[in-house]
Structure formats: C-alpha cells, structure tokens
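Comment thread on ticket #2218

A.B. wrote:
> Attaching the input chain for the structure job we discussed in standup.
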Amino acid sequence: MPNLVLGMPLGISKIVEENLDEFVTLIYNGKEMLLPVVTGSEGEKAIDIARLRAETGFITLDPGYVNTGSCLSAITFMDGEKGILRYRGIPVEQLAEHSTFKETAYLLINGRLPNRTELTQFSINLNDNSLVHTDLKVFFQNFPRASHPMGILSAMVNALRSFYPSLGTSEEEINITMTRLLAKVRTMAAMSYKISRGHELVLPRPDLTYCENFLNMMFDTPVKPYEIKKEVVRALRVFWILHADHEQNCSTSSVRMVGSARVNLYAAISAGIAALWGPLHGGANQAVIEMLTDVHTSGGNCRKAVERAKDKNDPFRLPGFGHRVYKTYDPRAKIIKKICDELLESMQISDPLLDIARELEEIALKDPYFIDHNLYPNVDFYSGIVLRAIGIPTNMFTVMFALGRLPGWIAQWKESTDDPHWKISRPRQIYTGNQQCDYIPLHAR
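C.D. wrote:
> Ran it. Output below, let me know if you need it in another format.
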C-alpha cells in the first residue's frame, strides 16, 4: 500500500545536509525519497518537491494551488489564521496610519522606506513622468463607449510598450520604467473617465500629492473646480495602501507567470489587470455595490438577504463577506471600516445603499452561521462604500484597486526577474481524456 511518512530518518542526503535541517520521507512501493523542508523567516514550512518528478515520475495535484508555494518572496507576509499582513516586515496598520502611498510604493519596490532625499527624487520622477503621449487619447476615444474601464486599462498598459519602447537591463533604466508606470497609469485612469463623460482632460499638477492629483484629474472641471478635502485624500491614500500587495493572489501570480516568459513589464502588468478584473478577485468591490443595489430595489430587507445567502439552494450570495485566505477578520477591513465611518460622518452623506450596508454588517456579525464559517466583512465590503462616497463611479472601482495594487505587481515582477534560479512557469496536469484512438474519416462518422 503506497504511503507518505513525515519524519526525520537517520540517513540524510547530501543536499539536505548542505542546505536544510529538516526533511520528509516519501515512501512509495518500498522506495524512499527525502524531500527537503524549506522554512520561511516567519516559521512557514514547505516541502520542496522540485526533484519529485525526475526521481519518481510523480507530480502533485493541487487544484487552485491552495497548498502550493510558487516562489520564495521577501515582499509581503500574511497569516490568514491570525489576521496578519505586513509589507517588507512593517504591519499594514502602521503604514495606513503613518505612511504616504508613494512611501509604501517605494518600500515594496525597493525593499526599504526611502529617506527624505530619495522620497523627494521619487516624487520628482513621478511628476516628470505623469504626462502621457497625446496619441493615447485617440486610442481611448476609439474604444466602444460600453467598454469596461478594466478592459481598456489592460489594453492601454500593454500599448505603452509602443509609445515608450526603451526598456534596458540596467537598474536605472528599469527604475525609470517602473516609475513611468506608476505615474502614467494613474493619469490614464483619470483620462479614461474624463473621455467617457465627454469632458476635457485635466493635466496633473506638480504642486499636488499623488492622491490629490488623481482626484483633481478625475473631478475638476472648468465649470466647477474640484475642492480637495483632506478626509477624501486620506481615505483614498489608505485604500491604495491597503491594496498595494497581498502575496501570491490570482493577479500577482499572473504577473509572475507571464513575467517568467521574460516579457516586458508592460505586458506582465497588463496580464495582472486582466486577472484582477474578475468578480472573484478585484471585481468584488463592484459586486458589493451591485448587491446592495439589488437588496435596495427589492425592498431593502437585509435579514431576508442574509437568509438567502445562507441557503445552499439559492444562488444569491453576499459579496464582501469571507475571504479565501483569512480565517479571521481581514486586518485591512478593520482599517478601512474606520476610514469609512469617519468619511461618511465628515461628508454627511445620506445614501440608502450605505444604510443597507451598515444593517447587513450588523446582522452578519451576530449571525451564528456567518461567525462559524468565518464570513466576516472583508476589505471589499467597506472599500466599495468608501469609493462610492468619494464619488468614484461603480465601473471604475476595479480600476481603483488596480492603481493601488500596481506597486505590488511591479515589486513582484522585479523580484522574480532578479531571481538567480529563475525558471519559466510551466504547471503540469493529470490527463483524463480518451486513450489513443484512430482517426475516423468524415464519410464514416
């Protein structure tokens, strides 16, 4: 009977002696194989199966990669059981409270917080690269009006390669390209919104911060100049910081996988944007508002909505509750909830959807089913409300997520390309189709 034994036999192979202190023993049909155990800096453990197929002919099967580590990374640490999220070792709570988005972006990409000189230079570089080629406006205007902004953004980021083709291999050239992306994608997002409304474009201003500039480019008009409010700027800053990276999620893994083919940075980021578009990923914050709208239009019965969500035979679900990784309260949700409450109070907003959201939250947090299944409100639940309060249109919600996640994607791409043990991503499969059979001529079918 084939079996798997985890232990520490007396004989240790040369590779384990040289690199690791722990290993597991795989026993199949009486044959043993030692598999090294890799331990991360926070005590996480993984079984290294890199030699498994070569020595045994076996592969592992892990649908959805729920138990598979695809890389070693020093960027983000998260613990779903304890509700921990840290960027480069710094708790996200501290960054949300004290850091700017530019500082956080610099931290993720460069591995440390910038000093004053470095931050000033980074700000100058962002301002210098914030304008986009005027021909890009023609591209935007030729998309069908009904196009989703995420589809447009993915295509336009990929198109940046044609407008800014110089991507050398030196550290300076790569840094310029990364800064260019952070600066131009923000401008392009605001541009797409302005074009969709038939408004004149608003250029970025060097006297405004990164967040202030985006809000001004989005909402300023000649008829009604945009009033920059500190509570709105703070809400956007925290929103982007909380979304800046989240370990090896679907979109980040897409950036790494596409990047493993050694494509240019623009193409890799474009792939990440396309993956983020999905309603099970970045599109969840948009799905929250759509769900709240459905509840409102159907009578506003929140308790009935909760009961429907608990019914396995009812396809209705409550997006914004629960998380694939977090088995306790999403640490980002605690932060954005506080920001949400403060923003709504300061702006004195009256919105029936926001009232429904608060009632749903109150019911779900007391419901035994939601508690037993760890279905706590996650960051998407509150971030959708924050974005709506700021004035961001619903179809732009996922674009806002993408702008926040951009530094993390860039950092992950950079880390993977710097990896001396780089390999192109090439998952295996277990084939379940027909065995060999003969071709049947058309007349005999």
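A.B. wrote:
> Thanks. Noting for the ticket: The chain is about 50% helix and 5% strand.
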